[in-house]
Amino acid sequence: MSLEPEVEQALASLRQSMVSGRLAHAYLIVGAPRGAAGVLAERVVALLYCTAPGERPCGQCAKCRQIAAHAHPDVLWVEPQKKSRGILMAQIETVQEHINLTSFEGGWKAVVFRNADRINPQAANRLLKTLEEPPDKCLFLLVTDQLAALLPTVVSRCQRVVLAAETTVSGAELRAAVIDAMTGIEGRSLVAAVARSRKVLGVLKQVREEIEKTVDADEHTGAPASEELKAAKEIREARIESLYKETLAELFRWLLLWHRDVLLRVVGADGPAAPAFPDQAEAIQKSAAALTCRLALANINTIEDMRWQVAQNLPVPMVMEHGFIRLTAGGGLRTDDGRQTPDRRK
Q: Between the CA atoms of 105, 108, 114 and 116, what dihedral angle is there, to the nearest 10 degrees?
């Protein structure tokens, strides 16, 4: 079976580390848990046990077949519980028991965490102690596509192998979306405000569709049994929602940075903070010219309000539309014929 180039490259690097005796005790593999990252984890574990005389893992010997079937007695595979959708304390206790037992074959012990981002905080703290003082000849592989969901202390104890960026849109794309929304539509009318919100919502719709495709490509590598179907659907929705919220958080970060740049221009500050949008100096200046310091600060508060509302699970379209109306109303909304309407914000 041929491997994807990124998997081949990562596997070759880890193979060399093993041959030279420099294999770390814990690796964090970032990528699709049931896709490329899952394949890499399986191949790395097979490296430990393969008996082929040539390049390892061969994928054909009895040990490699045991690994592929998740049936090797020295390897523990840890996945989220169906009901809780998390990796719990009891599972970490099982991990600790497993690694402290003598190896069946007198060699390596291995533990693979699929969807490691779902280790709950208490369990993660328990695992941390093991990662800090691992037994000899014990390998931990943590597989995730949501690196930000892991405790930083756990991440710091692992060497990273990045096969793919986390499955959210890049910061550069969201920065471009903010520029488009703030500069691509002229005017301060209600129509302009709604148009800006719809531009952003259009980007978010595309992002969500891409997230769904990525998650589905990952989860559908093996069809769940009928009794597991409901749990599988719940896990799918939870993953999609988690990744989508990460995208929203990044979007709000760029919106805040835009309005911070505007505020700095309003007050005439040339402080140590470099502008986040140096390439948009003319547009920033144009926005600043229409605002007082009070209104520029109010716009920053509006973004914070929008972020809080989304965190409280208010509908994103409603939050965006109302928020952009408030943002556009800095200095007062204008009707289509140019007449100013009062700013009713408290």
A: 140
The pLDDT mean for the chain works out to 83
Q: Is 164 helix (H, G, I), strand (E, B) or coil?
A: coil
263 plus 308 within the same structural domain: yes
- Sign, CA dihedral 120-123-125-127, equals negative
224-235: pLDDT as tens digits: 444 455 656 766
Q: What are phi and psi of 185, to 5 degrees?
A: -130, 120
Q: Tell me, yes or no, whether 230 and 296 share the same domain.
A: yes
Give the chain's radius of gyration (CA, Å): 25
Model pLDDT for residues 185-204, shown as the tens digit of each residue: 777 788 888 999 999 999 99
Q: How many CB atoms within 10 Å of residue 256?
A: 18
Query: Considering only CA atoms, which of 273, 244, 276 is closest in space to residue 257?
Result: 276
Q: 319: helix, coil or strand?
A: helix
Q: Which domain holds residue 114?
A: 5-162
How distant is the alpha carbon of residue 171 from its chain centre?
12
Answer for the pair 56, 50: CB distance below 8 angstroms, yes or no: yes
Quote the longest CA-to-CA distance of the chain. Answer: 83
Number of H helices, E strands in the chain: 12, 5
Higher pLDDT, 164 or 24: 24
Question: Which of 230-242 are b and which e, b meaning 16 or more Cβ less than 10 Å from the residue's Cβ?
Answer: ebbeebbeebbeb
How far is the C-alpha of 68 from the C-alpha of 62, rounded, in Å?
10
Domain shared by 320 and 181, yes or no: yes
Quote the pTM value: 0.58
pLDDT of residue 308: 93
Does 346 map to a domain? no
Hey, how many other C-beta atoms are within 10 angstroms of the C-beta on 244?
17
d(CA 177, CA 198): 11
Answer whether the bond into residue 57 is a cis peptide, omega within 30°: yes
Q: How far is CA 266 from CA 140, 147, 293, 297, 331, in A?
A: 53, 38, 6, 10, 13
Residue 337 in this model has a pLDDT that exceeds 50: no
